[in-house]
Design goal:
Blueprint: H1 29-32, H2 45-48, H3 53-59, E1 66-69, H4 76-86, E2 90-95, H5 101-115, E3 121-126, H6 133-137, H7 140-145, E4 149-154, H8 158-161, H9 164-167, E5 171-174, H10 180-192, E6 203-205, H11 207-216, H12 221-236, E7 252-254, H13 256-263, H14 275-289, H15 293-305, H16 310-325, H17 331-346, H18 351-364, H19 370-384, H20 400-404, H21 445-463
Parallel strand pairs: 1-4, 1-5, 2-3, 3-4, 6-7
Helix pairs in contact: 10-11, 10-12, 11-12, 12-13, 14-15, 14-16, 15-18, 16-17, 16-18, 17-18
Length: 474
Amino acid sequence: MFQPEDQPRVSLFRSIPNAGNAADATRPLADRMRPQTLDEFVGQEQLIGPGKPLRTQIERDDTGSLIFWGPPGTGKTTLAKIIAKMTKADFIEFSAVLAGIKEIKQVMADAERARQYDTRTIVFIDEIHRFNKAQQDAFLPHVEKGNIRLIGATTENPSFEINSALLSRTRVYVLLPLTEDQIVLLLRRALTDRERGLGEMNLSASDAVLKKIASYTSGDARSAYNVLEVAAGLAKSPIKPESGLSGEPDSVRITDEIVHDALQKRILLYDKTGEEHYNLISALHKSVRNSDPDAALYWLGRMLEAGEDPLYIARRVVRMAVEDIGLADPSALALCMAARDAVDFIGMPEGNLALAQAVVYLSVAPKSNALYTAYGEVLRDVEQTAADPVPLHLRNAPTALMKGLGYGRGYEYAHDVEGKVADMECLPDNLRGRVYYQPTTEGIEKRVRERLEEIKRVRSRAGTGAAPKHGKES
């Protein structure tokens, strides 16, 4: 037995189980409809379906510390709360935006004291990627000692955002965006639930209307609930429903027009500094490379409508022109530079079409990465081979001393040689004969290839004894 004064001190951050009333109409619909059990949970069957890894660990009470990685509204916080409820653990919720080292240490001390009395603590950190290295490190000893089970939620790739030491002590689970059908199921449940949802409002909505909400919220259940809640308010506000013959009020229909008003603007999953930023630009680049103008236009539109900096896109489009088209169509670079200038000059939204023109042109242009590959090989040789001096015959000799040292001796002035090509090595001795640029047979590069073959023939003839018309030093 222990005396009351020996009990662990209650933390200001500790949540009190079942403190919230699910029927409290002042709370947002998304919070009221939050699943209380795994059986209520919709989505993530790959993790919590019967026999799946996370469900098995929860049922065995062997979850350890976890990181949930996925887009907004996929159930990261909900899963953490269900785990705490099923494992009968205290649940402490942090926001990485608000908490600092002082608060972390206080809660860790409380959790350590609670463990002495067989009370387990789950510390849930929303947006854990926003914690800096020192803040993340503050959890390490307590995770190792077993004072807490840490559950972190992040929309960013943990490989880049979570300290390796902390990451090695957690299991990472990837949560997927909900499908449209799953969102519709949740919305239908909210419309009919009289205790926690909108059932008392006697609303109805067609599957098509609910699918519109689902499609416009990009797999984010929280956003879908918010749209439905606004639409419900709009549907009920103009006219009170008249009573029907049965004495019960007629249902009020949520129409397509009401949903359109509730949505205002499509909610696009995007973070200009996060992983989705790189995912979308990667999709745009690879669609261009694969000569798919329709896909390229789609990904371009996704980025622009989500608020991406158009000059960032313009810079990447210029890169595509030199990396994937190159000399197969040299005018591609000029067109992309013109698109960049158009965006800078006329701004948005008018500049959208300039970028659209550029990505379509790049998509249908002949493709060659010969220059990209050649320059990559050059960089490898620069890094991995000795930096041999410039051959003497390629050096300028502006002074008598330099001429006396042999600078410029043996140089052949190409314009004075038959065919304008001298049989003269221009690489350093350790790379003599090295070939970097190997043009393809695509577009204009086919003509470049033919010209290079002609140059080789001319150089070969020059090397068999064809004398230059004139000798000339630089």
